[in-house]
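USER:
Before I trust my own judgement here, I would like a peer's view. Write it directly below this note and I will take it from there.

ASSISTANT:
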Amino acid sequence: MTNHSTAIRLAADVGGTFTDVVLEAGHQLITLKVPTDVANPEQGILRGVQQVLSNSGHKLEQVNSFIHGTTLATNALIERKGATTALITTEGFRDSLEIGYENRFDQYDLMIEKPQTLVPRHLRLTITERMNVLGQVLRELDEDAVRALVPKLNKANIEAVAVGLLHSYANPAHERKIRDILQQEGCQAEISLSSEVCPEVREYERLMTSVCNAYVQPLMARYLRALQAALGANGFQAPLFLMTSGGGMTTLESAIRFPIRLVESGPSGGAVLASKIAQSTHEDRVLSFDMGGTTAKICLIDHFKPRTARNFEIARAARFRKGSGMPVRIPVVEMIEIGAGGGSIAHVDSMGRLAIGPKSAGSQPGPACYQRGGDFATVTDADVVLGKIDANAFAQGTMQLDVAASESAISKDVASPLDIQLKDAAFGMSEMVEENMANAARIHSVEHGSDLAKSTMIAFGGAGPLHAVRLAEKLNIKRIIIPANSSVGSALGFLWAPMAYELIRSRYMTLNGFDAVVANELFDDLAREAVSIVSSGAPDAELKHVRTAFMRYVGQGHEIEVPVPNRALGPHDRQLLTESYETLYRKLYGRTIPERDIEIMSWALVVSANSTQVTTCSDELDKVPAKITSKRMAFSTNERAYTEMPVYWRPDMVPGASFDGPAMVAEAQTTTFVTAQYCGYIDAQANLVLQRKES
């Protein structure tokens, strides 16, 4: 896909079940999956790193960079296992976190329970002060009241403090003064300012983002510093970078300050990989499908770019229900994530229905077949019983799976309660998890006006290739691409990600009162901060600046994103911004509103280092029959019975090697299960391409 340099790079993605490690050294690429060490994830990473280095013949001191993504922040928020956190806010606004949007995520649930708040009411503390929307001081900060809070914070053993004052995005002076006073008075807690974490309008989201950042900051700071120390103790001397939710890399210190930006770091790496594969294969419309051991992630990619958003909801209490989680405002690759992975646990509910997830067996104790004490029936156990997974060759033969344990768990949890045969129970589990994922994909595509039948699926993750074809059948997708080394797709994506940082700041302005001087000063401030972060990770790279403004007609409630020229702005740009806004507004809504002034709510800047160029190549190949390596009994979705299927060993398949389904394409860390409706071949870039048969 690209020209490789001689640099040695490492990437590690810590998932809920497995930790994926990739080493790239020139044209050499070594991948590995090791079980995630839940108690000490940095030790699990280190074991994986040492193993790939041993396999490659390199030493840790030779590595030029390390890129890391983790679910630790996400899991802490979902499981409510973060720091004891306090909130300091403007007098009269302590209950904003609970009031939220003043609505219910399920209007008809009379017994509805709102998600538990991260900060209980007695730790939401108020201070006398007030700014107006323009950042002008209406009431001075009561500094003595701030000093009086320190004994209360220390007595409550507060580990983190979020400071979120009204309109602090317009003037951060009071928030900064509070931090100075707390530190001078001996407060030992980590302090997050909303004016730094999320300097934007909309009080509830700003407070929630700041609280979430504070809640995970001590945990993430300890973890990242422990990882840095563990690597350094073994000879690592190069920079450690973190993958952000927006699909770019950032520095270690930036990640420690703003860990909320890491909540979707692993999945965003998968989206980066899928976008690069899409570009190299000329696929304009793509559905990215990433299925691991704990969750499945689905993302839409148009014109080689994953869809992005400024809003993200963490830990939804009700499945697919908007408003049931914690809304944060961070740059994020837009995707839908559901509890559907290899470790998802199957059960029969009180109404006698088969259900899968969202609870997962994780890496400890794991599926029943792992022989680590797990006795719940999981999707992986169903795949073992159905013959999709070779129990003797799992994880490159390093883990011997217990087929009898899988059969016993499925019989206990599914087959006996439903009074059906074992094979039907396993097949039902597989069908159910695929239908859950298909339903999530349908919802996501409808929300974005996308026709999945016209899309190509790019599937990866440890369990993605096992379920991709059947999922594609349910979604009427005709073409599937399984990249090389797909089982560690997110970690591979880290190696493709650019060094990048995005900043956004609210500064109200109407186009009738457009002030180019103020806009230029704001962009200069944003550029100084973003460039300092990106340059520290890519000191010699040429930097790209992308500017946007979030605009709306006066009186409207939501904005659209409008490009802003990357140069000094002048009074004449008022007309340019007006025309750009109206063009985009007409494209979205079919009309404009004449004689209505337009307001700018926020300004954004993305600074990125130029990423490696993707090389495309022709897919015109002479097709030759692939060589069958072995045959295995597996459950056929067409015949609803076990049949003998050919197995192809992917590393031995040359470009042009082709075959017909039903079949299985095995590789070191995963297997692609192909139904009778599809045929496949290896393309010129070593991708496995599956095409639906015309008949």
